[in-house]
Amino acid sequence: MEQAPQQINSSPKPGINPGIAWAIIGILFGLILGASIMWLLQKPETGPIVRVQVVRKQTEVEDETGTWKTYRNEEYGFEVKYPENFNKNEYNTIAWQFIQFIKKGTNIYYGYEIMVAKDRDKLSLHECADALTSQGKKINYFTISGLPAQKITYDDPVYNKKITLIIVKKDNRMYQMTDEITSEKTEIFNQILQTFKFLDYGYIEGPLSYPSSGIPDLVICARNIDTNEKYCTQENINDDRYRYGKGFELRVLPGTYYVFANLTKVKNPDTGAYYSQFVECGLKAECEDHSPIPVIVLENQITGNIKPWDWYE
Predict the structure, then answer these.
(1) 3-state DSSP: the chain helix, strand, coil percent, rounded to 5?
(2) Which letter does DSSP use for residue 26 in this model?
(3) DSSP 3-state of 229
(4) Which of 51, 54, 264, 300 has its CA 20 to 30 A from that of 78?
């Protein structure tokens, strides 16, 4: 006898509505996200700290030699600075002029020396170095005022010391600077050496005149308008190229000058017959302007036809 098939209950099982579930998930995600953001905002910095250093640009380099004294030798055409607490001593021999800078309260051996000589043998820098036969000699090459120079270190057998010798040549003259090598002295010597420079001159040239039948011996001077420094010469040049047969040439440092002439019997004149507007006007009676004319001098150049003729002011 056949059994009747069992009836399967196909009614849905009780559960959560899918729409409600997704809503709950969205709410939970929002809560977690918000809490995470709040935690990050309140969390103290624990990572690496980047420090930014602000470097102020240095506009002026301190010049340690700014308060030093200046020694200028116009005969040999150079200048150099030396410390305030040093004395200067000069003396001459037949072949050399010596300039010594010696620390106050010390003996002559705590100092620095510059020697200037006529280079009668016309030795080259290499030959000068070869002339030193001392033991332990070392040679380095560099420049001073754009000129080739040598730095020679050697052992002095007389004083049992190590010496630095600087040699440079200019205008057929030899310049030597010496120093005993010690840590303190070498530092000062290097600073002195850095201030050494040759003077680049210019020249003022022109004819002379005098309101008489002849031109007596005159002294010609140029006064720097900015520094009031004065250069004079009593050398009168007799040459037919000058209008009245006599002229002058005066060596000065570059700058702007007033130029005047006076009689040699006037010692150290401060004024005289200027090169003036009256001269350029033709020395005529109707010319009323006697103001001096500034004369500009450039290094290694000649400013010519300067006529200190205004004897009528």
Answers:
(1) 15, 35, 50
(2) H
(3) coil
(4) 264
49 C-beta neighbours (distance < 10 Å), count? 6
Q: From residue 154, how far is each of 40, 54, 166, 178 by CA, in Å?
A: 72, 47, 11, 11
> Full-prediction pTM beyond 0.70?
no
Indicate where the chain has its CATH 2.60.40 domain(s): 202-303
Query: Is the separation of the CB atoms in 81 and 192 below 8 Å?
Result: yes
Q: Whose CA is closest to 221, among 266, 269, 254, 265? A: 269
For residues 303, 305, 311 and 313, what is the CA-based torsion angle, rounded to 10 degrees?
A: -60
| CA dihedral sign of residues 80, 84, 90, 96 | negative
Higher pLDDT, 51 or 198: 198
Q: Any idea which architecture 69-198 has in CATH?
A: 3-Layer(aba) Sandwich (3.40)
DSSP string for 286-306? T----PBPPEEE-TT-EE---
pLDDT at residue 182 in the model: 66
Q: Which two tokens stand for residue 308?
A: 């200190």
- Those residues whose C-beta lies under 8 Å from the C-beta of residue 260, and which sit 6 or more positions away, are 220, 221, 223, 269, 271, 272, 273, 274, 275, 292, 308
Tokens 């309260």 belong to which residue? 105
The fold adopted by the segment(s) 202-303 is Immunoglobulin-like (2.60.40)
Residue 171 DSSP label: T
Confidence class of residue 46 from pLDDT cuts 50, 70 and 90? very low
Task: Categorize the per-residue pLDDT at 301 as very low, low, confident or very high, splitting at 50, 70 and 90.
Answer: very high
DSSP class per residue in 28-64: HHHHHHHHHHHHHHHSPP-SPPPPPP-PPPP-----T
Residues of the chain within CATH 3.40.1000.10 domain(s) are: 69-198
